[in-house]
Amino acid sequence: MNKLVFIFLSLISFSTTAQKISGMVFNDKGDLLPYASVTIKGTSIGASANNKGKFSINVSAGTYTVICQHIGYARQEKKVTVTTNDEEVSFILTEQKMTMKEVLVKTGGEDPAYEVIRKAIKKREYYNTQVKSFECDVYSKDIIKLRDLPRSFFGQKIPDADRKEIGLDTGSAPIIYLSEQVARVHQQLPDKSKLDIISSRVSGSNSFSFSFPAFISLYKSNVTVFTEKFNPRGFVSPIADGAISFYKFKYLGSFFEDGKEIINIRVTPRRNYEPLFSGIINIVEGDWRIHSFDLYLTKKSQLEIMDTLGITQIHVPVGKDIWRVKNQLLHFNFNKFKIDAIGNFVNVYSNYNINPTFPKKFFDNIVIKYDTAVNKRPKKYWDTVRPVPLEPEEVKDYKVKDSIFEIRRDSMMTKRSRDSLNKNQGKIKPLDIFIHGISRRHYGKTNTYTWGIHSLLPNLRYNTVEGLVMNVEGFYNSTLKKSKTRLSIEPNLRYGFSNTHLNGWVDVTLRTRDFGNDKKIKRETWIFSGGKRVSQFNSESTINPVVNSISTLLWGNNYLKIYENWFGKVGFAKRYESGLNFSINALYEDRIPLANTTDFTIWKKDSINITPNFPSAMLRNYPGLTFTRHQAAVLSFDISIKPGQRYIQLPKTKIPIGSKYPTFSFNYTKGINGIFGSDVDYDKWRFTINDDKNFKLAGLLKYKIGIGGFINSKKVEIPDYQHFNGNETKGNVTGGFKFASASEYVNSFQLASYYGNSTKANFYSFGHVEHHFNGLLTNKIPLFNRLNWNLVAGSNALYVNKNNNYVEAFAGLENIFKIFRLDLVYAYENGKRGLTGLRLGAGGLLGGSIPGTKGGGSASTSGRSVTIGF
Fold first, then answer.
1. In DSSP terms, which residues pair with 322 in a beta bridge?
2. Distance between CA atoms of 405 and 407, rounded to whole angstroms?
3. Taking the CB of the first residue and of the last residue of the chain, which one, N or C, has fewer CB atoms within 10 A?
4. Which residues contact 4 (CB under 8 A, 6 or more apart)?
């Protein structure tokens, strides 16, 4: 159906005779006025002037009244008659003349703007919910220019050839991103929305524009700009319920349009370093609705990523007593790490349909849908639909980059091009395998694949069992042409120079998925693994091998408790569009104990006490526990669901974008006795709930809670116990505090021993919760608030029985230098005061997860994300 609609629209665009009303917008001093709003009176049809003040509107023959508006200037109207030729009309706007009412302000009285704002606040919710549903068209044009770029970035040199290709040596700010998009928006109260992307164009690419039109509404008390990453707390609207306690307001005067008085008010934050706007807002007298605004955010507004962000909107009537956004302009500046960039995002809204009747089930889990021909529109199409004329530099950018892209695309599959691409990767240098690794892409006639070896130096490890450990990790990735199945082969070799053991295994992964715009997601994964490897007793351990290596070398504290095993594993996983995921894994292991073979440390001290390669902390709850060679056949089943999962639907795939509901997960694991000589016999289960909940101004809450236990525990070996992720340390002690790197947040216990709480009890419970204040409280502290370091606090708790329980509370600061997080942690074990420690991890705008130990048992490669410190 959608295809027919768009074909019909295309035919209309090219078969009817359309004229244009075009022109320029100036101020009364002769200067160009960029981004003025131009509208056909009595309709929502219109355009926006570009950065050079030029506009263009497609119309049919007739007589029109054209309205030109710009914040800070008096509106102007001109009557234009269009026959068979295009018509040109220019506007010269004069500065808005404000009239000042005679206002009697008593000593200690307030500015008259406050009374206007109070009335606007009373009407805010009415206008927020006035329109129960609507549709409209939106045209978006995004442009980003680069003004400067460093010679190197985080130690990586940026070649002069790359700088020249970008155009930095021309003396002007080159365009690094230019895109256009035409879409149809559908919204219905209270929270249903859908965006149909009709056409999209990105300069020098056939990819899709992701410049989704943002309805930035001041009628919402808390305003989200772009995404929550810019500020998880959102920004307080100048007409929010409590706005007067956040803002100062100043009456600047008023002007008249269509017989209505528009009151001009300056908005100023009462305090710096709070999520507040600054600028001008215009309110309609009597109606107390928003006419227009010109607001901006800075670092003092707790704006992240960008340095400044300006937002301009003009509202127009689209129905009886109904006004909606006509034009929106966002302009920003970014200047970090010597990267200096500026950008403008222009949205023009038109063809409003107020309170339409949507078909049943129109609003589903597809929030954004791209048409199958979204990036296939010809140049002539864009010339007919574009309401913001291209500037000369934009025309040139499209022409040059699109030409280069087409040449490269057309030559990509020729034998000469393939040979050139293969050759240009250069020769393999012997030292590359140690520092950078080896990565090669083979361009073939029917298939392209990649292969290589990860760098060896970052994979060097040290522990008291194997001594110095060398890990060699290879990879091969390809797509099987007929089935579109992605094949991944990862061979691994591990050698311990002290115990002289060589281990090798291979992981083979096949990933399939359904293609097609209207197909349901049914992605499947098969995993086949086998060989001989080294595993941790806790297969889900968050012990980072690098941190453990440093701890062992410096202080002799080796926390990595490992065993060897011959193994074979088969796994299958499937993901459904509903948010349901399940997997089943069959594992067989021949488990072999290992002993320490070296006591070498850099700092020789009498106090160094190297512990055995055995989780001895478990002896506290299970005296006499041993680990001898045995076999284990284990079958595990996992299922999880995140209700209400939403998606972006691209022409050939769908991308999940989350849900307002938490994730529910269940695991059942069976140790099967007797199969292939298996010695284990147990049944265990676990149920968890986890989610992130954003309370905007009040901060972000993250939690994970769970219960579980053993139904049958006839024969349970150490790797099969329920282990909990600890983070013990015997590092340096300063002022009574133990300082170490943090383990994975919301999934571990920062001061607990690694195996001290392990259990095979029939029931246990645990919980992890932390609250990120995101500037709340800390932004009230003078001078300190300039750092933008944010408070975080929470607790981790575990209960098995009265003899095995643990709780810790922590408070700290994050976003330190945009990367780090530092926590002070107090721990109580079995009801008694335990350790006090400091934990340093990655937490902030640029901080994130760093790979740790691989889930599933390998002690050498990474497959889980853990947060560590430095």
1. 319
2. 5
3. N
4. none
